Structure formats: structure tokens, C-alpha cells
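Your task:
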Amino acid sequence: MKTIAILGSTGSIGTQTLDVVRQHPSRFSVFMLSANNNAELLVQQALQFHVPHVVICNPDKFAQVKAALPGVQVHLGIDAACELVQAPEVNVVVAAMVGFSGLKPTLAAIRARKTLALANKETLVAAGSLVMGEAARCGACIYPVDSEHSAIFQCLLGAQGNPVRLIHLTASGGPFRTWPREQIATATKAQALKHPNWDMGAKITIDSATMMNKGFEVIEAKWLFQVPAGKIHVVVHPESVIHSMVEFVDGAVIAQLGCPDMRLPIALAMAYPERLPLDGKRLDFSALKDLTFFEPDREKFPCLQLAFDAIERGGNIPCAMNAANEAAVAAYLKDQIGFYDIPAIIGNVMAAIPFIENPSLEAIFATHEEAFRKAQERL
């Protein structure tokens, strides 16, 4: 029996994590759930899974959650989440919060030497060097939950210490892969939210449409697997059957395949090294007609190039890029800006932020605040 804490339990990853728990009640118990705004679902989850601690980050929802959960300890704010993930009862922390707000509780879990199932990619984008340094110092294990990074992790298990030539990071291409640039420029929020393969939250779905999500994943892969960005190759694979591949120096390529189902990497990260049985669709190889691959079009999707630019500059620039993206995507979801205003704002902010080569944690938080403010000014 492993006891888990879920940061962001009401989002897409959080709800699918609880589905894994639901299928394996003898293997997992839930110690803590946290949410930002979705008080109703948080209450339902707490009651269904008999959770002793919940955290609601929006103070306006605190009274509602507390009244609905007599006998449950209800806490307010991100600092409470940071404290609870360090509790001795917790074995595994599932970091499923969206955005920069996941950094503090993720670091708290690492410092408490918890096993971390990491789905919050912004943590490594904004502060990869600091996060991985803390994990090494504390001896904390980090297992990736992103399907692509879980695939790379699984492929590397077969490396036996042999050198890697390339990591091939697959991308679905999002809803606009076949659209001309002129049509993409007029894309509405509703169109951008219709991902062809994956059921995800709104922010990450927009990031997938702009391909910023893939840029984030390149940065994640750099830190998780300690490889230079030059060894990470993004390839568009619309069928989302191959979740990523690792190519070795002799030309051999190991790939991880499966149906698009986030519960697979979630369950592996929670139970590693064991694979748990899960219900759901299985690959039918006789039904696979085509597996296609394309180079990404960085002119149609400039956010991907911005991510590579941020990696090359290093320091606090990836943090600035992430903050500007958060502000721009939030504005796009409110129909305040157009699709290509997103990369325009991000590039402008990246150019305006003073460069810090080796930022401290305090400098990372200051960069995030400054970049977010500059992005809002440019809206």
C-alpha cells in the first residue's frame, strides 16, 4: 500500500490518477487532494476516496469546502499544500498542478525525499537546474508522467548504460497541423481546444495547438535525462501511437507504443518498477493502417522555435518564456488576443527580461513575476 498526495486533483491528470487508485484500492490510499477553484469536484473526490486532508487554494471557496466536508481537515493555500506533501504518511506525490504555481510544492516534496510523479512540466521549464539539483542533493526519485517522457524513460531502461545518439520526441501536431498559416491566424478558442487525440485541460490543450507544449517537453527532457537540446529531435506523429523513441549510436531505435491513455504513464510513475493492470483500449496491430512522421513547421508554430531559443540562451530565459506564455494563453482563452499574438508576446517578453546566467530560486520567482507583468502590459 502506497499513500499518495495529489497536487491538482481536479484537473485532467488528477482525475485520471484517481481512476488508477479506483482500480487498485488495495495498492493506493489518498492522504491529500488539492485544487485551485473546482470546489465541487474536490468535495466529491474527498468523500469518494475518504481523504483526511484537502487543500483549496482559492480563499473564496474555503468556506464552501469546509462546510461540505465535516470530519475532513480542510486547508487553505499553497503553503498548506507544501506542508502536507512533506507529511511522513506520504510515499508518492503526484504533481499535477498546471503552471508555475506547481514549483513550490514540488520542491517541498523533493526536499522531503518523496517519490515524485511529475506531470507539472512548468516546474522544469522555469527552474530545471534548481529542481534537478535539489533532487540529486536530497536523493528524491522523479518519475515522469508526461506520455512522451515516460516513453523515453521506458526506452532508456533498455540502454544498459550505452550512449544515446538522439531522443526522438513525438508530437501529435495538434488541431492545426494541416491548416495553412493564414487560417491558423484566425483560429478561435473553440477550434484550438479540439485536440485530435488527447483529452487534456484547457491551458495544456492551447499549448499543444501552438506547439509550445512540445517546446516545454524538450526542456523537460533536457533536465530529466541530462542530455543537450541538440540531441532532442521533435517529430510530428499524428497517430499518437508511438509516444517517443530513443536512438542509439549503432543506429538501433527503441520505441514505446500504446493507445493514447494518460493512465498508463501515471500508473507506472506511481507503482514503478511494477506495471499495474488497467482497463482500457489495447493496441490492435492488425488495425494500424499507417504510422506517419513529419518535421514540425516552425514558421507555422513559432512557439517551438521560441523554446529552442530559450534553451540556447539558458539562465532565467526559459522561466520568462513560461510566464509570458501563461499570461498570453490566459488572454487567448478569454478571447482577448489572436492565436499568433501568443508567440508575439512571448518573444517580446523574452527579449525584454534582463538575463541572469545562474538564477537563484528567489531570482526565478522574481523573473516569473516580472515576465508575467510585462506580458500583461503587452496585451
